[in-house]
Structure formats: C-alpha cells, structure tokens
Design a protein that fits this description.
Distance between the termini: 30 Å
Shape: globular
Strand content: under 5%
Number of helices: 6
Order of helices and strands: HHHHHH
Helix content: 40-55%
Oligomer: single chain
C-alpha cells in the first residue's frame, strides 16, 4: 500500500476499509470517511476534490476554513490529518472531546492506518490532530 504523504493520497473509504471492517456502523464509517476526505481535499485545493453541490453546506465550509487555518502547509501534516480523519469517522468522539480523551483513539487509528505508512505523531502534532478532529466532527454523520 502506498504511503500517505500528501492529502491527495488519502484513499476513499472502500479502499481503506473492507466492507466487513465495521459491521456495526458500516454506512456511517464509509460516509464519514469520504466526507472528511473531501473536506481535506478542498482545504488543500486538490483537483481530486469533488465540486461542492449547489446546496450550501455551512458546516462543511466552516470545516474547510478551520482545516486551512491549522497549518500553513497542510500536505506536510498528511499523516496526522489522516489520523484525525480516522478518529472523526470511525471512533466518532463526542464534540467536546479533549486531547486526553483523543490520545487512545489516535492509538487505535495508528493500528488501522499502519499499513499506509502513517507513523505515530510527534508530541507537537497531537494538538493539530485534536484541532482537526474538532473541525471535522460537526460534519460527520450521526
């Protein structure tokens, strides 16, 4: 599997999760992953981003704005942002989850994304992951 070193290398859900990987909530996981992936693609201005529909999505626009504000070079944070996407789409923490609550969820995300060469985040990247989860979480399906 290719390493995720840029946002546009984050694969769609059907590539990363087999159909049987989350039997308790398969639709929500796949839908959440794909929404979050599209938000990240829009945030970096990737040509792989699907056009936004004509129907306004204020939460999605707000998430894109928050993601762009995380760091000047989002692609340099592709690994940590892939972890944030996993935490948001798969573990679906509460909206007010703090960094301490997210650390074990980041560990679970690392276990799932290790085949994609996503490495453990540096201590200074934990806050970036937490802020990315907070940006993505309002757009995740219930």
């Amino acid at each position: 599997m290719p390493a995720i070193t840029r946002i546009d290398q984050i694969p769609p859900s059907h590539t990363i999760f087999p159909a049987s990987s989350h039997p308790d909530q398969p639709g929500a996981v796949h839908h959440g992953w794909n929404i979050g992936r599209q938000l990240l693609l829009h945030a970096v201005g990737s040509p792989l981003a699907n056009p936004m529909t004509s129907q306004p999505h204020p939460l999605r626009q707000e998430a894109i704005t928050h993601l762009r504000a995380l760091t000047e070079h989002l692609d340099d944070a592709a690994g940590p942002l892939a972890l944030a996407l996993h935490v948001s789409a798969v573990q679906q923490p509460l909206a007010d989850a703090d960094t301490t609550t997210l650390i074990p969820l980041i560990g679970e995300a690392l276990a799932d994304l290790g085949d994609w060469s996503v490495r453990a985040p540096l201590p200074e990247q934990i806050d970036l992951i937490a802020r990315a989860v907070l940006a993505l979480q309002p757009c995740m399906p219930n």
